[in-house]
Amino acid sequence: MRGLEFRGLKSVEGPIIILERRENVGYGEIARIRDRSGVVKVGRILEVSDSSVAVQVFGPTTGLSIEETSLEFLGKPLELRVSVDMLGRIYDGLGRPIDGYPEPFSSEFRDINGIPINPSARTYPRDFIQTGISSIDGMNTLIRGQKLPIFSGSGLPHNRLAAQIIRQARLKTEESFVMVFAAMGVKYDVARFFIQAFEESGVLSNVVMFLSLADAPSIERLITPRCALTAAEYLAYEKNMHVLVVLTDMTNYCEALREISSIRGEIPSRKGYPGYLYSDLASLYERAGKVKTSSGSITQIPILTMPNDDISHPIPDLSGYITEGQIVLERELFQKGIYPPVAGLPSLSRLMKDGIGPGMTREDHKDLASQLFAAYSRTKQVRNLAAIIGEEELSSLDKSYITFGDRFEREFLSQAETENRTIEQTLDIGWKVLTHLPREELYRVKEELIEKYLPKVTEER
Amino acid sequence: MLEGRIVRINGPIIQAEGLASAGLYDVVEAGELGLVGEIIRLKGDIATIQIYEDNTGMKVGERVLSHGAPLSVLLGPGLIGRIYDGIQRPLEDLFEKTGFGITPGVKTNPLDMGKKWPFKPLCKKGDRLEKGKPLGIVQETEHIKHPIYLPPNQKGGILSDVAPEGAYTLTEPVARMEDGTELFLSHSWPVRNPRPYRERLGMEEPLLTGQRVIDVFFPISKGGTAAIPGGFGTGKTMTQHAVAKWCDADIIVYIGCGERGNEMTDVLRELPEIRDPRTGRSIMERTILIANTSNMPVAAREVSIYTGVTLAEYYRDMGYNVAIMADSTSRWAEALRELSGRLEEMPAEEGFPAYLPTRLAEFYERGGRVITLEGKRGSITIIGAVSPPGGDFSEPVTQHTKRFIRCFWALDRDLANARHYPAISWIDSYSEYGAELQGFWEKVNADWAATRAEAMELLKREQRLAQIVKLIGPDALPDTSRLVLLCADMIKNGFLQQNAFDPVDMYSVPEKQVIILRLIMDFYNRALRIIRAGAPLLKLRSLSVVERIVRMKSQIPNDRLDLVQEVKALLDRELGELEKEYKV
Fold first, then answer.
1. At how many degrees (to 10) do helices A250-263 and A314-322 cross?
2. Cβ B233–A348 below 8 Å, yes or no?
3. A117–B341: do the CB atoms touch at under 8 Å?
4. Nearest to A353 by CA among B241, B76, B445
5. What is the pTM of this model?
6. Which of A82, A291, A450, B139 could disulfide-link A234, Cβ–Cβ 3.0 to 4.6 Å?
7. Pairing of strands B63-70, B182-183
8. Residues of B with CB below 8 A from A289's CB?
9. What is the pLDDT of residues B246-285, one digit of tens each?
10. CA torsion A166→A168→A174→A175, rounded to 10°?
11. Could you tell me which residues come within 8 angstroms of residue B455 by beta carbon, excluding any fewer than 6 positions away?
């Protein structure tokens, strides 16, 4: 009950404390924990039985004592105070303002766990978002309401890419986005980098930020993305805004989940991650989308660093099973000096098929993207062959694929961080690099499209 | 009605006391909101219950009610065209009641209880009603006749009263027996109990999917079982959608089990627009959807598979051929794992419970082709997607599933990366139904078995050659080997690849499937002789018939197979000229 404090615990083990059940509390509700020096922390009830209550503490448990700790049960799940005035504000990982101003004036609260969206209440996303980045717009189109993660590795420019998307993302209809940004366990400079990016593009007043930095207790990271998505849901589904959510870094989130799971003594599945990692990630990613009751939308760009660049590691693997595609960054391209190093073949946007084409982007988009994929895939095979027998021994057709591949990487994939290409520019560059292939190799494109779009003059064939 | 009280809560698993006389797997209403749950363990006075809805805020001491019956679904007219969650709550009704989110504790009727159905009696007063004898018939949709039987778990007897022909709701009795039992258009059935049938049949009838790689190379029978394993992005869902749209089953039960919400929305958006090629009606009029997406409660995901298969059995019992798409059984297995972990059971491989194979076997064994209680033939074909972590097929769910299925459509990451769809690997996949279905296919085309074997052999040879090509390039190979590469490419591009978005190519009738493959093999055989006679490969590669054959799949509609003659004539003419030139 609010206002009633209990003293004394049965045990403290890492972030989990157990105490006697002296009040009838509900599963999943929130408790306030006061330590011996009067510092207040927040916790959530994990398990209740007739005699005891287990509480997970979101914060350091250093210094918690069995006798000197007191608890107050709030009788409700963890909630976030929501308001349109959240825009432009900065919160900590638990949803408390840290920018020096008071909480926005509002009496509305939302459970941070959200509620699962009814599949029959969803609207199928199909509005094209122009990011101005050819490798995304042309080959892995982002759709409004999609969840499209960036699979990266340490040292790769995922933050720069995300910042560029944030700066440039536009809808064809010119409606603008508001942003929700959640940082989980990232370093201060990374957060600073994003704040700067928001400032430079003049959108800072349209961003809600939740920062749980690397020095914050790891368990806080379990709450941060939920706060962020709750804010996003309020803005999108209740205030009809288009919200772009960037979550970084999901790997840190999963690590925190594993930490808690192992403290609770749960049976691990792959690599020590709990068996419910998939369901837990789904409870975050599935909060993206569009619903029939509102004109707003939530587009999610989670960023995760693949441990050891391994895409079959449980975190990217399970994410890939839930999200609608993935943008994979490739170290080899990065080392060649190509920015953004978006890997051609493993990247995919599942919603692309319904969001491009005549009326949405351009009539040649589907065929062109498919042709570029096919040709680039062939290039990779030819390169493997060339590595063995030498480039000189290749047939002239194979040589033209090598030229195509180089041009594709240097002209199509590669662009400056400040370069904002329209979809038409992107597609035209795609056609231009195809001129390095013999025309009969363009078997995935319709004849009339070749006539219309393939540049007539080819340079240095 | 039994009342107990909650003593422990650990996520969706709770314990309650005072339910000692309840049975295992009985359904309960738990807590103040009356959340639906199921008793999964009984020990002394303590019952362990899994809750199918989000139970945040539940307290120790709240009551638990048991009705003394196992978790059941309501079966009757009106199931077709609906979308349900894992415990048969209609999602559209929930949307109307509570908005876009699924709030716990909402009660709805699985079927529209107020709708009047046209009922035509087939029995009269004084007749004896036995199991399998139709009491009457309801026209459910334009193409689905829905006989009403005595529920298989009830005793037969003499009818003391039968309602006249007319329109009745599901709550109005349509007959009464001498012992006083009333019969309705609907009845309920426990989901974990298979429904009875008279006897099992063989697998001689194919389930035609219109997908060439499946029908010709790895065919499945009506009543058969298949698994589609593949890492993310390899096209499991796309393949299941294609089969659900085009296969020649009468009824489709599509179970979205722990998968993406937008995929179900996609199905809901797309199916109503597609016409069934046989009836000309919307595909939705033969489909039941069960959607328990990844963010919905995990316990309901576990049961959604059983809900789906029970609905399928209900229509099978009327003599229909039903196909179940379960996407994905791995998520179901993970739900088992999660619940087992909370029950603190000893895990077997990778944390999965030791009874995983038993549960998989029970599920797949509910498929099959049978003679129903009435004496009709009905079938349930089960096609389950498997999502192996990291795309590694050696993991427990894939391995155990392989023991209980007879068709294995392995999806290949390299094919998917090259955008070769359906990305079904012709090397790793298999079907054990080939021999049983030979009779059917020989009627379609006498050359089926031979063509299939020849093509398969060619693909196998190409795979070996591809290893060499990787090392030394294709130019170093002799022309006969390069012809193998050329023809294998023709099979891949002109036969195996199928564009799900091309109006002609998305679906192929059996005749067309065999014709295309036969033509490619004819080309190969004649070309081989010409090359042996000294012609360079270039002469064959540049023939215009090569491209014509590869484009047949999208240029020859299913109802214009006569156009094949033109391609045949071109083949004869072009190869004939070369044969003359090189004196073959």
1. 110
2. yes
3. no
4. B241
5. 0.91
6. A82
7. unpaired
8. 261-262
9. 999 999 999 999 889 998 898 888 888 888 877 888 889 9
10. 0
11. B217, B491, B495, B517, B520, B521
